[in-house]
Amino acid sequence: MASSAGMAFAGRLREGRCCLPYPATAVAGEREAMDEMTFRSDTVLSDVHMHTPSRRHLMVRLNSVGQPVFLSRFHLLLDGSRRKLKKKAEDVKKHNAKCQWLYGEELEEEGAPTASVEGRKASEGIAALLDEDGDLEVVRKPRLPHEEAEDLPRDKVCPIILTQGRGLLDEEEHEDSDCDVIKIEHTMATPLEDVGKQVWRGAFLLADYILSERDLFKGCTVLELGGGTGIVSIATAMTARTVYCTDVGEDLLATCERNVALNKHIFEPAGSSVKVRLLDWLHEELCMDPDVPYSWSDQEIVELHDLTTVILAADVFYDDDLTDAFFRTLCRLSRHLKRPCAVYLSIEKRLNFTLRHMDVACEAYSHFRNTLDDLVNLKDGRMRYAAEPLCLSFPQQIVYERVEQLELWKITAVQTSEKSSTLEEQK
Q1: Which of 380, 366, 283, 285 is nearest to 325 (CA)?
Q2: What is the pLDDT of residues 1-21, one digit of tens each?
Q3: Host domain of residue 237
């Protein structure tokens, strides 16, 4: 999540007190067009972008602050999608079987050659490897055609630059017009205050859970805090009725709104909607100024307070100040909700070397747990909170690496006054 508190990050980093998402050192781009890109020492990079299987990232534009914006496609492992991916894997396996080479000569594609033909081809193949002086001449395996190589699985992907308009994008959008792909515009390397413009594994984990437990979110009004690129809100809208995706920063919110538009075919047929709105954790009131982009209307605030039963947050606990601001915001919002609320939080534990300990530690996670305990032990006579970790045994619904450092938590928020009134009515 990006916020004005990010200006304090660099100082915290110099003091060795800030546990941050994977720092990226200065690296040269693997493509000629990326050679001029340099990364500052405080730049962070999500490894999600570097390990998307079977697809490359497409640079589509520069955002308002001059950062390259890429378009990535993330496959949903729905029933039909699983069958298609299995068939694609089988096709790739068959294709690889046809790409066997004998002494620099390609084997016959239709049927196996006879023994005599094999011997003749072997002799011809050896002769073909020698030049006119009888020296060995290495024959390299030719590249596969671009359209075939595109679908081959690979561990590491590199960005490519679109220089010929949006023709390729239009073709891919047509190809993935069904509901098994989420397309996300994002950055790949940002300063610390802009990490919300990237995609993180915690977002995939939370989206996994929502897509696996659809009945818990069906027809709900949902509020996401620190929505970033919007991938969690988009996945939630596949089952929820209304999703308020909130964050700060006009450029980030504009990117989020673009992503919602890119994926509207996924949730609009079900009558769901995603509304991108401004919500700054450092301000107590929701912005209602009509001159401010992504501000709230009176009706939306009424609906938020009257109907919201689910609050989401994915991988936003990487800085102590922001963690404190998040829990203050959660307390403030939950007091205004008229219904009991379930809060789902995902977090990835990140180990960093700190000068304070002169050792590897996970300070951001420790602070998250301490603050969570404080919330559960809060006794103000108005709210009661209960927290529990959720088992990650639910099936994976998105293609990504679910590492063991990921955790998912559920907080139940109930207004004690409402509960007492309910018990009195039942009596």
Answers
A1: 283
A2: 444 444 443 344 334 444 444
A3: 4-81+151-426
